[in-house]
């Protein structure tokens, strides 16, 4: 039995203005901890990342409304999948912006990432998702996601070592909030924010928070805009190591769209309205991802992804309103021009972020394993073992065992003077090994 009195907003619904502002602000609070942390970890400017997040979200929503007649309700924030690649280029210290030259070099890789996503989106629209899955099976995408997270383990512990007491307490609070506040409404969506806030407050009496930078900062400030550079000794490394990580975000983006589509159609049925069938726009959704990354790369921000945190928030609140997400994009853009806000964010102690990073980086790795479990990848199959084992050892071992995560292999040294980036190299090896098995089918496993 359907009823038109069902509570919730569908993608094309516009809430009353008061509700619209509050719902938009809720989206910003949800995306804020992760998006800001990526910038602080990798040397990108916080204000620029916020600006790009708002722009890419608004552009994706407007394009989807104009192209398919309905909003695809997704919010775009910084992706954790690219952190190791950025760090291999920037060697950033937490909270310290990288030089404009290094950011411009990394932007080249982000622009190429956007182009790759757009190409894959058109391929899916042309050939279908099954063909893409054949060349990027779950054992490849899941293993790559795993090495991204676990390969960053040493970096997380390095930050935590700044003050182990603060880091461990931050970690414990974050873990407890993530477990015991689950399904407790909006507050259950903010374990990282809550854990970080507790760690920050504890750090103040310990003298770990320097507020002088906030006092010196102006109230209004223009975000630091830089343009991509396709020259210099590190540009090939940046393009290779950053763009290849798109293979980890493509299945993530696809899963998010399926999740949102399921819940939107369920709410539409309750309201007695026609289903939106957003999952039919899977190829177009990846094109939107690519456009967002392309725009981010043009102005000096990190590569993005549509946020699972905001998807979960929408499922809890039953608010899938596209206009509310556009409002969130506008708020993110406005925050980018508040100079004291960026300065305040940069007062977060390294130890606090170390505690958060232990959890967040570990979750990235575990999600790679979860992806393979969900897709029922058999590790009794020699083919899967061969692919997964190669990716894991080269990616994790290379990223932790060698300075900067560069493999000291003389091949192509003229193009990659520092060596081959371990995680990107592992991803390519996995793709090539899988390609062999696609072209020459191995015997079936009994």
Brief descriptors of the model:
single chain; 446 residues; mainly alpha; two-stranded antiparallel ribbon; 19 helices; 4 strands
Summary, kept brief:
The chain has 446 residues and is mainly alpha-helical. It has helices spanning 17-42, 46-68, 83-90, 100-127, 129-135, 138-151, 153-160, 164-180, 191-203, 212-216, 235-243, 246-270, 282-299, 308-317, 322-335, 339-345, 350-374, 382-401, 422-439, and strands spanning 76-78, 304-306, 406-407, 420-421.
Catalogue the unreliable spans: none
Number of helices: 19
Strand order of the largest sheet: 1-2
Count of individual domains: 1
Helical content (DSSP H or I, runs of 4+): 55-70%
Q: Over all CA atoms, what is the radius of gyration? A: 21 Å
What is the string of helix and strand elements?
Answer: HHEHHHHHHHHHHHEHHHHHEEH
Total number of strands: 4
Which shape, going by the Cα principal axes? globular
Largest sheet: 2 strands, antiparallel
Q: What is the percentage of strand-forming residues?
A: under 5%
Secondary structure class reads mainly alpha
Q: What's the mean pLDDT score?
A: 90
From the N-terminal CA to the C-terminal CA, the straight-line distance is 47 Å
């Amino acid at each position: 039995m359907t009823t038109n009195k069902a509570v919730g907003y569908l993608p094309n619904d516009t809430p009353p203005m008061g509700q619209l502002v509050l719902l938009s602000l809720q989206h910003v609070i949800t995306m804020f901890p992760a998006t800001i942390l990526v910038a602080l970890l990798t040397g990108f400017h916080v204000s620029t990342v916020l600006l790009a997040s708002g722009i890419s979200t608004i552009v994706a929503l407007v394009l989807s409304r104009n192209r398919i007649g309905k909003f695809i309700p997704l919010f775009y924030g910084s992706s954790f999948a690219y952190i190791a690649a950025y760090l291999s280029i920037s060697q950033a210290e937490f909270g310290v912006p990288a030089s404009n030259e290094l950011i411009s070099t990394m932007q080249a890789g982000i622009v190429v990432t956007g182009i790759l996503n757009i190409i894959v989106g058109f391929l899916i629209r042309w050939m279908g998702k099954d063909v893409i899955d054949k060349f990027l099976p779950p054992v490849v995408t899941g293993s790559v996601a795993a090495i991204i997270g676990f390969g960053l383990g040493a970096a997380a512990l390095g930050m935590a070592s700044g003050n182990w007491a603060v880091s461990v307490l931050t970690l414990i609070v974050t873990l407890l909030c993530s477990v015991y506040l689950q399904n407790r409404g909006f507050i259950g969506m903010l374990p990282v924010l809550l854990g970080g806030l507790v760690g920050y407050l504890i750090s103040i009496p310990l003298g770990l928070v320097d507020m002088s930078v906030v006092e010196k900062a102006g109230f209004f400030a223009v975000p630091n805009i830089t343009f991509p550079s396709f020259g210099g000794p590190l540009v090939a490394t940046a393009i290779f190591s950053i763009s290849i990580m798109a293979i980890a975000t493509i299945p993530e983006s696809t899963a998010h769209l399926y999740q949102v589509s399921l819940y939107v159609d369920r709410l539409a049925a309750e309201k007695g309205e026609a289903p939106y069938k957003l999952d039919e726009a899977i190829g177009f959704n990846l094109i939107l991802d690519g456009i967002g990354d392309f725009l981010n790369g043009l102005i000096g921000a990190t590569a993005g992804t549509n946020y699972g945190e905001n998807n979960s928030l929408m499922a809890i609140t039953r608010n899938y309103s596209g206009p509310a997400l556009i409002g969130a994009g506008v708020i993110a853009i406005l925050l980018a021009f508040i100079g004291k806000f960026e300065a305040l964010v940069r007062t977060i102690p390294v130890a606090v972020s170390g505690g958060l990073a232990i959890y967040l980086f570990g979750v990235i790795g575990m999600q790679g394993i979860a992806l393979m479990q969900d897709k029922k990848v058999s590790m009794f199959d020699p083919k899967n073992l061969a692919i997964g084992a190669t990716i894991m050892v080269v990616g994790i071992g290379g990223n932790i065992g060698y300075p900067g995560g560069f493999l000291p292999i003389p091949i192509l040294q003229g193009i990659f003077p520092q060596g081959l980036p371990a995680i990107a190299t592992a991803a390519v090896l996995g793709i090539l090994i899988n390609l062999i098995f696609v072209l020459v089918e191995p015997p079936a496993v009994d």
